[in-house]
Each structure stands twice: as C-alpha cells, then as structure tokens.
Design goal:
Layout (H helix, E strand, L loop, with lengths): L8 H7 L8 H9 L4 H7 L5 H11 L1 H7 L1 H11 L7 H12 L20 H4 L2 H10 L4 H5 L13
Length: 156
C-alpha cells in the first residue's frame, strides 16, 4: 500500500544527501531548470537519480519545475540541431512555447475557453472593433441573447 503522506521536512533534511550538500542551491536550480536527474546525481556525486527525485519531491521542487516548462521547451528546440527530433515533436514544441508566458502559463486566447468558440463569427465589424480596441463585449453577449447571424458574414 502506497503512503499518501509526504515525509516530514525535519526528518527529510536529517537524512537527505542533497540537503546536506554544499552545492544544494545549485542542485535545486539544476532540477528546476529540467536538467537530467541522472546528470545531476553524477556531477554532484549523489549516488543515484532517486536521491535527487526524493529531495525534489520532499522540498516541493517538482511543482516549481513543472511551472518552468518554458525552459524545457527552449532547451528541446535549441538541441534540435544536435539531436534529431521528429518534425511533429519539433512543431508541437514550438507551438506550445508560443502559447506560454514568462512564468510558463498557457496564454491561449481566453475566447477559446468557456463557450467563446465562434464568438467572432457572430460579431459585426463595429462590435469587433470595440472588442479589439477597448475589450468591450457586445451587449448581446453580456445578456446571453446571441444574435442569429450567418457564420462568417460580417456586417455593420
């Protein structure tokens, strides 16, 4: 049976090779920057990649690393000149990177979430301009009274 409780911080730090290591800060930064756990363990003579993983899990570094997915995508794209990724994986990495902000959050258009699909097809040119210039949604959108317009036809 798998335990759901995480290791107590005090107990972890007493037994952890990484916590007691003189280069702990750099080890943690390497992990967050998506450096290979095996390479980290080898460089800092930690014995095993599992030592790095256990420390990262106990200290909450996995969440920080996952938030920095942007760095991993950048590395993948940069290494594409040395390693031959498939065309599909390269394109997906580039497309994903283009949708992330500095913190690694997906900044895909809010209009594609929550029922906004097709919104622009129902807007007039005047409504589109108001939305683009001032971020104003049409009155019919605010009230939920969506006009019955032909898809793709823009009128004034």
């Amino acid at each position: 049976m798998k335990k759901n409780k995480s290791t107590a911080p005090a107990r972890h730090s007493q037994n952890c090779t990484v916590c007691r290591h003189r280069d702990r800060v750099q080890i943690e930064q390497d992990f967050i920057a998506w450096r290979s756990q095996t390479a980290i363990a080898r460089e800092y003579k930690l014995g095993s990649r599992l030592v790095v993983y256990r420390h990262a899990r106990a200290c909450g570094l996995i969440k920080k690393r996952n938030a920095s997915i942007r760095g991993a995508l950048c590395d993948f794209i940069e290494r594409s000149s040395k390693v031959r990724p498939t065309a599909a994986s390269f394109v997906v990495a580039c497309a994903t990177l283009s949708r992330l902000d500095r913190e690694g959050r997906d900044v895909a258009r809010a209009e594609s979430v929550g029922g906004y699909d097709g919104l622009f097809h129902r807007m007039t040119r005047h409504e589109m301009l108001a939305y683009a210039e001032r971020g104003e949604m049409p009155e019919w959108f605010k009230t939920g009274d969506t006009p019955d317009r032909t898809k793709g036809v823009l009128s004034d």
